[in-house]
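Predict structure. Chain length: 155.
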Amino acid sequence: MNPVKVHPDALRKTLDGQPPASPASTARLADMPAPVAPEPALTEKESDAVDARQVQLMASDSPEGRPPTPWLRRREWRWALAAALVLIIGGVAVALIRGISLGEIIGLSVVVVLLLSLGGAPVLAAGLFRAKEQRAARAKAIAELPPTPIIGVKS
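Prediction complete.
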């Protein structure tokens, strides 16, 4: 049986009495996103006011400006999906007519998807930053809400 060797620093305690964290675990913790605090329960009127204020804050604070409306975002996704389907079906049809085998078509499709994923990485990162900005703007908008009066309590 092999005895377990313990590094002397592993037994050392920090000032708060806890063992020191390893550099690897500290680095992993630094990369983790901060937990999102639960949003307080809002009435429909408060929620509408928060949504409107969040859009105003995003328009003024965000480098990308005002976010698109949900209607515009749906329309853009529909057009993008329709264009992608036309290109995919047309490309496969032309390839089959020219006598290219189905295996080559699938292999090329995998390469195209990988290239699109690599090309889309900056857009994904921008989307993640945008989500962070939206959460911050929403928290600021909620903090700006006037306090809700409690019935039966005089202030």
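Summary: The chain has a mean pLDDT of 75.
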